[in-house]
Every structure is written in C-alpha cells, then in structure tokens.
Write a structure and sequence with these properties.
The complex is a heterodimer of chains A (364) and B (161).
Chain A lengths: L1 E8 L3 H12 L4 E4 L28 H13 L5 E4 L2 E6 L4 E6 L2 E12 L3 E3 L12 E3 H10 L7 E5 L3 H12 L3 E6 L9 H9 L4 E2 L2 E7 L6 E6 L12 E4 L3 E3 L3 E3 L2 H5 L4 E4 L4 E4 L12 E3 L9 H18 L7 H15 L6 H16 L1
Parallel strand pairs in A: 1-2, 1-6, 2-3, 6-19, 8-15, 9-10, 9-15, 10-11
Antiparallel strand pairs in A: 4-5, 5-6, 7-16, 12-13, 13-14, 17-18
Helix pairs in contact in A: 1-2, 1-7, 3-4, 4-5, 7-8
Chain B lengths: L1 H4 L4 H6 L11 E4 L9 H5 L5 E2 L9 E2 L9 H5 L5 E7 L2 E8 L10 E6 L4 E11 L8 E8 L6 E5 L5
Antiparallel strand pairs in B: 1-4, 2-3, 4-5, 5-8, 6-7, 6-9, 7-8
The chains are: A alpha/beta (364), B mainly beta (161).
Chain lengths: 364, 161
C-alpha cells in the first residue's frame, strides 16, 4: 500500500488545475492519468477558445494544455505524475487500485479529487458498426494528434459545439464535410461556429438524423431522414449521401463509474449529462474527503473545468490543513468566474442541473 | 433562420454596419448575434471601442467613433465573427480572418463568397498579414466591387473544386 496526501484521478484541465492550487497551498499530490499524455481533451483542440482571459480565451486548446501542464511540471518536488496508469478500483476508505504497465498497485490517500471527465454518447442506427463511423473524439485524436485523416468526405451528426468545431477542423484538414445534421429543430452550439461552416459551403440540416449506414466492408453511403416536431421519421424524406466517413457528435456523459464504485451518492440529472455525484457547496461527495471537479460533475466547457479545478484544489488542500496564502480572495474569485461563465443562456442547463443536485443536498 | 441554417438574416447583418458615410475609414463589423460567455474582442481592443461589460455573456457593442480599424479584434475573436469593412470609391475593402491553406498571396484573384457559402464574384488579395500575435489566424485584406459590401464574408481559392 502506497500512502499519499492527495490523489487526483485524471490529468485533464480540471485535474491539472486542482493540482496547481493544491500544490501552491503546500500539499503533496499524485496525479494519475490513464493516457500517455497530460492535458485531456485539450491537446486535440486546435481552435481558439471562448471565455474570458482568466480561462485563456483566444488561446488555442493545445496551447492552453501546454500552459496548464507547465504549471504542474514547475513543482516536481510536490507533484508526482503517473501516466499510462488507470484507476481500476476506488473504494469508500480512499483506497484505490491502479493498473500500469501490467502491474496492479494499491494506493491510499487522505483526500481524493476525481476529475475523470466524460465519455461520448453514441447513436443507434442500422449498420452503426461499419468501419468509417467514428465518434468526434476519435476523429480529433486521429486527425489532430496523429495527423491521420478519417476519410475523404464526412457527414457530421450533431450540431453542438464539438460537432461544429470538429467539422471546421475537418475542412481545414482537407476533408469535404458533405453535411452537418441535427435532430433538434435548432443548432445546438454557438451560432458563430455554425456561420463559419455555412460560409464554407457546408449544408446544415436541422430536424434531420441518420436512418442507416450503407456499405459492404466499410461505409459507402449514409441515409438521412427528416424528423417531424414529435421527432418521428418522416416517411419519404430519406436522402442518400455518398461518404466514406460519418462522425457522431451527440453529446457527452460524465465518467462516473469510479464514484459509483466508491458508493458515492449518485443522481441522474439530465441537464448535467447523466449520472452525477451529489455534491456539497465545497464540491465534496457523500464520501468525506472525496471531491469532484470538471465534466464528471456535469458536462460544460473546458473554461468551467479549469475554474472548478482551481477551486477544488484550494478546498481539498484546506481540508488537509494546507491553507493557500490567498485562499479567501481566490475562492471568491473562482466562484464569481463560474457564476459569470454560467449566467447566460448557454449556462441555463448547468444552472438547472446544479440546482437539482444542490437542492437535495441542502435539504438533507 | 440563423439558428437553423447558420446564415444571418440581411437585417441582422445590416444592424452591425455603421452608416455608409463612416465607412470611408475601416470599421469593425461584429457579427456576434448570440449571448455567449466570451470577451476577447473587448479585452483585445487597444482603443476601448468594443464594449461587453462585466457580464461576459452580453453581445459586444462597437463604439464606432473609437474604432480605428486596426484589425486586432479580427484575429482575436475565437468565433471568427469580426471583419473590417470600408469603401473606396467603387470598391469595398475588407480585412477578414482566414485559417485555411493555401494562404492567399498578394495580387491573386480569389472568389468572393457570401454568408450562405455561395460565390458572388471576384475578390482581389490586397495584403496578407500573419504575425505571431495573430496566432496563425491570417488577416487578409481583400477588395471587391462595392456592390458586395453587405454580402461578402469570405474568400475561396479558384483551385477549390
């Protein structure tokens, strides 16, 4: 059994930012990341980010990753990092099992921050397992991390920010985006992203979905169909498009499985993306000294994950007796930033979702 | 319309243009029609000509008399939703953000494209600026016929199929 003060599960924006503020408070930290690189999804993001300067707006995602990783690597004496290491077990007494390079190890921490992020949702339709059908995350990994095109042409399903942004990146890489389809009657993501695509000649088709994929050994065609106001397929509206790739970008769900394993009280909150942990105002779960931040407690933009990470790092350190020299100022500042990021129409789902989560907590 | 197709209505576009008399000098045309949490246009403007305020969800407002047409906001907007426009006798001159290869070269003749992605005519490449501050978003100065003042939004290479 290896003993640690604070273990952070996940080296994406939320986990990295939690490590930064907790280490500034004087705490020693272990970050456990299952992939070979720190940075989470940020390392695949080639576009300039929205938000305010405090969350690195107008900086490209992979450059934000460099900044956040740099902040953590600056303190090697305090922050230890395990890469290619997967937490496969999390138990209520703050013990965890880590799998790395064929070996299982046991760790125990005084406090744990779970910042596991999210996983992609998929879509059920005929032949959805044909080669050439990808999730948006896979497209970004292939294209932006490894420089491999997913196809010559593509149909994108989903008009959230990820669907819109990945479509733009595909066009930049020279892939013909034949259509972007959205089952809802309106575009889900930022309209500026949609306008960028439209001016490149990409047709945006709302109230439309994929009926089936067609192909022998790999994807050759996609059959689209229009939906009525009850989201039912309109017979006779089918349309076939020739394409060798199809990208599914229909939303994310919190990666909550470790929390469920630790018997954390969970709740299904649709507005937050699925199963999420019930949390206190300090981002603590029903298990004492087990904290959460980032997409695992509700799907949002990376800017919110960054600020939540900073906040939870402060709180977890304080709990273990390490009070950040600027604790009060920073805490107030992070709360104000989160409120600001969530105050517009795009923050509505998060506001409702968090109210549902916290309402119960206050009532208890 | 915009929220179904990505194409802004003519009235929306016109609402972001200052009076034509003012366009003898380049002015920022800010096509941000939605309350989203974002403010680099405001913080990047060295002249205080773009106002959002403390609530970063508000849409930016151009204070037209303070806008010098410097173009810093054009490459600072993560949504590529800002361009500069001015009129020069029979020409409309724009500065647009561009993030595709090949990068246009001065003197080339490209297609002028409207907000629906349709080719509307010719666009002459006047100037191409790509300095580190722009972080790989190229600032392209193009001129078109003045008729395209309210329709032009981007360029497309003639080699594009």
């Amino acid at each position: 059994m290896i003993l640690k003060d604070l273990i952070i599960i996940g080296g994406g924006p939320a986990g990295l930012c939690a490590a930064k503020t907790a280490s500034e408070a004087g705490l020693n930290i272990l970050i456990i990341e299952r992939s070979p690189k720190l940075g989470g999804q940020l390392i695949k993001q080639t576009h300039k980010f929205f938000g305010s300067e405090k969350t690195y707006a107008k900086t490209r995602g992979f450059d934000i990753a460099k900044i956040l990783i740099g902040d953590v690597l600056k303190r090697p004496e305090q922050i230890e990092i395990l890469l290619d290491a997967t937490v496969v077990g999390l138990y209520p007494d703050h013990e965890l099992t880590v799998y790395q390079y064929g070996i299982y190890s046991k760790y125990k921490a005084k406090a744990i921050v779970v910042a596991t992020g999210a996983s992609e949702k998929f879509l059920a339709f005929e032949n959805n397992d044909l080669p050439g059908i990808y999730g948006a995350g896979a497209v970004q990994t292939l294209m932006n991390l490894y420089g491999v095109l997913p196809g010559n042409s593509i149909v994108m399903v989903g008009s959230g920010n990820i669907g819109l942004i990945v479509s733009y990146q595909l066009m930049q890489a020279g892939v013909k985006v034949k259509a972007l389809v959205e089952a809802a009657p309106k575009i889900g993501g930022y309209l500026v992203h949609a306008s960028k695509l439209r001016r490149l000649g990409v047709p945006i088709m709302t109230s439309t979905t994929v009926k089936r994929a067609i192909g022998k050994d790999a994807l050759e065609q996609v059959e689209l169909v229009s939906l009525n106001e009850k989201w039912e397929m309109i017979q006779g509206s089918e349309k076939i498009i020739d394409t060798d790739a199809l990208c599914i970008s229909v939303g994310l769900s919190p990666l909550h499985q470790l929390l469920s394993m630790a018997h954390v009280e969970m709740k299904f909150v649709n507005e937050l993306g699925g199963m999420v942990p019930v949390i206190s105002s300090e981002h603590e779960t029903s298990v004492k000294n087990l904290f959460v931040c980032g997409d695992v407690v509700g799907i949002e933009e990376a800017s919110s994950a960054i600020v939540e990470g900073y906040l939870v790092g402060l709180i977890a350190a304080k709990r273990l007796g390490y009070i950040h020299p600027n604790y009060e100022t920073l805490e107030a500042n992070y709360h104000a930033q989160l409120t600001n990021l969530r105050s517009g129409p795009f923050g509505l789902k998060t506001r409702i979702g968090l109210a549902k989560l916290r309402g119960e907590d206050y009532a208890r | 319309m915009l929220d179904k197709t990505g194409i802004a209505l003519k009235e929306q576009v016109l609402s972001r243009f200052p009076k034509k008399e003012l366009l003898v000098k380049a002015k920022a045309i800010i096509e941000c029609y939605q309350d989203i949490p974002c403010n680099p246009c405001q913080t990047s403007c060295p002249f205080g000509a773009i106002y959002i305020g403390d609530d970063i969800n508000q849409q930016p407002k151009l204070i037209v008399e303070k806008c010098t047409g410097c173009g810093i906001c054009v490459t600072s907007c993560p949504g590529l939703a800002i361009m500069l426009a001015k009129t020069e006798r029979e020409k409309a001159v724009f500065k647009i953000p561009y993030e595709f290869l090949p990068v246009p070269k001065v003197g080339e003749n490209w297609y002028a494209v409207n907000r629906s992605g349709e080719i509307i005519g010719d666009a002459f490449i006047e100037m191409v600026q790509n300095i580190p501050r722009q972080d790989k978003t190229v600032l392209v100065t193009v001129s078109t016929k003045i008729d395209y003042l309210y329709d032009f939004v981007t360029i497309r290479s003639r080699d594009h199929e």
